[in-house]
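Troubleshooting: if your tokenizer reports a length mismatch, compare your output against this known-good record of 114 residues.
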Amino acid sequence: MAGMPLMNSDFGPEPTGLTSYSWDELSETAPAPRRESPESAPGFELDLRIVLGRTSMRLDEVLRLRSGAVVVLDKRVGDPVEIHVNNRLIAYGEVLVLEGKFCIRVTEMVGSGG
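Known-good structure output:
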């Protein structure tokens, strides 16, 4: 083939420290991808959202909203709230009040078996 370098064994002395592997050996001995634990980045911030409920409104309804307006959501009192981290549902919980502040008790983890 024109323009392609010719392959031969005249490349000079073989570098020291080289080890030969076959593709089968590499696929069997390749290390598993390293997964960092959350504890390894304690200062890393995540977006945590508690979703009490949802509703749909037309634009004209949104534009008419004023202080004191009541927006009805799709959840009932006592229904679990959704806990999202970085826009991903991770758990369900219940709303509590502790020392005059709202808080959430996690009642069910989603997809983690925990």
